[in-house]
Amino acid sequence: MAGLQEPRRVTELSNELTRDIDTADPLGIVRRLCGSDAQLFAGWGGHPGVNDPVILDRLWKLSLKTAALLKENQDQKKNNRIVFSGCGTSGRIAWLCSWTYNRILQKFGHTPCFHYLIAGGDRSLIISNELPEDDPPKGAEDLKKVAEGADHVMFVGITCGLSAPYVAGQIDHSMHQPNMTSVLMGFNPVSLSRNAPIEKWDKTCRQVFLELETLSCTSDSAFIINPIVGPEPITGSSRMKGGSTTAVLLGTVFLTSLQTLLGQPILPSMTLPAREPEETEVVFDHSLSPSLSPMVSLLDCYSQTYQTVYRHSGGVASLLKLAASCICQPSGRLIYLGADTLGALGLVDASEMVPTYGVGLEEFRGFVAGGWEGCGNTEGDLSGYGKTFRVSLSQFESDVLPSLTDQDCVLCLHGSSQRTGPPHLHTIVNKVLASPAKCGLLVMAENGMSCNHLLDKRYETAVLIRLPYYHAFGKECVFAGFALKLVLNAISTGANILKGRVYGNEMINLRLSNDKLFERAIAIIEKWSGANEEDAKFALLRAIYKQDDAANVTLSHPACPLLISEYYLSSLFLSSLSLSSSSNIVQYHPTSQRHPLRTWLFHWLCYWQEVGVQSVIAAERKLLQSAKGLRDVISTEIAPTHGH
């Protein structure tokens, strides 16, 4: 695995602001997430952020290019298409944004022209399938299909870590087509994009992206949008800051383009005329910067939305605490109910829990009024694929409502501009309030809109967040959607932290289902054990194959989805016992009872060290009392019978 030797990407680093997030209370978790999300707008480590003149110039040029393509569709009846593509969260954001922008076009009498692709197809909107992410030819094939018959295609490939082979295959195809514009969006320097060999392909992500970077210097058909927004609050979990930044950047470019096409301001307070730069103002490109005002104003709207959300940190923490009180139960569930874009965001947040935290398919669920009908997904109704894909309120009523218990939390997502919401949503909510489940309410409120009709004393927790901006073009709840994403990320992440699925700020229950996650698992073992890369890899492989003898372990990663459960985590501790020569050994948190480490210690010490249960109990008690390093306690309290 030559690629494992490359420098760590920014998106795979540990965020120093959240390294103790696993020991924080609900409010402390939200405050740490606030600090991490601030880097979205402020930038990180001296790198260009979203407000950097270089990035703004690229965004503006891309917006102009998009507006020209949209104008050709209107005036010349051309068939130009804009295609967003990504894997996992990036693909889900691509879906939501294409759906939103098409609805804006339709409401103003224009033909929809936005499309999306997600690795694994529409089923990946609900259940992640990471294997297609490693398939560049499949990515190129999917792009060819959606581009067939188009006059021109603007392709926007989204890969937060600049690490997705699926997107690399599409970029490699698009940048060599005369009728395509290639846009790469991610949050690492191109020089740190993934360089590992890709099975059945003769290139790496870095080779493709560097070629695009070179092309972007001389061509108006190649763009790289890569502001550096810092490490994720939970290491490598790009569903969070990466997904939020993607939504902000796509909105900034394409809402500005729609403003140019429609001749209407995105917000009533946002004027169309360009301003002239003041004499002392430093501008990146004098021919473009006077026109940047609407785009900068739009970024300011997103920034103010972020600030407004975290001014309600106490309310967000109360919803987090409510959700965690159920998720921490043996059969607890968190269920989102909503309508339109807000309901779809609940669907997306729930879908990301399985690959990120290794949860069961039923532990986090999202349901949206109308189900797949009207969601703008390519393949239409997916309900036939199984229970997990049944996402309408009617299906919630038949599949889930009868089984609700006091271990379940139902969170109702509402926008104040929806008045009472769809009638069926109101009916379902009343039935939920009459059930044993714990019920919470989250309202994204439009300024000046009364929300009294939404409040009900039967809610255990109700949080109202009044936003300075809500709609785009008076039609789509773009800013309310961004605010809701931040809140839902905080709730679901915090609940999993309190459940014990995060150690430090590492997600320790993730599923090994593709090359990237296999590499991430090795990095986690290296970090916590002090072992070198090769020893960490063998420790992980021995744990996966349940083999102590390296001769019985294949040298490559397994080509099937695997769950890093107690075997993976135990291999981490095994590495700290047998492979590390450093003194930086994993430390117990004596004040925290969240991490089920004693289960893993029991299993692995009894199995590998051949010691009795009573010896393990005694060692654990010493460990909790003294907060000694794991190696120190084992070496002084247990006499191992063989040197693993």
From TrEMBL:
Record-level GO cellular component terms: cytosol; nucleoplasm
Top-level division of the source organism's lineage: Eukaryota
Domain SIS per the UniProt entry, residue ranges: 66-277, 323-501
Entry annotated with the keyword GTP-binding: no
Molecular function in Gene Ontology: carbohydrate binding; enzyme binding; enzyme inhibitor activity; fructose-6-phosphate binding
InterPro entries on file: GKRP_SIS_2, MURQ/GCKR, SIS_dom, SIS_dom_sf
GO annotation (BP), single: carbohydrate derivative metabolic process
Pfam families from the UniProt entry: GKRP-like_C, GKRP_SIS_2, GKRP_SIS_N
Keywords noted in UniProt: Carbohydrate metabolism
Keyword Phosphoprotein in record: no
Family matches, as SUPFAM superfamilies: SIS domain
Coiled coil location: none
Protein name: Glucokinase regulatory protein
Provenance organism: Geodia barretti (Barrett's horny sponge)
Source lineage: Eukaryota, Metazoa, Porifera, Demospongiae, Heteroscleromorpha
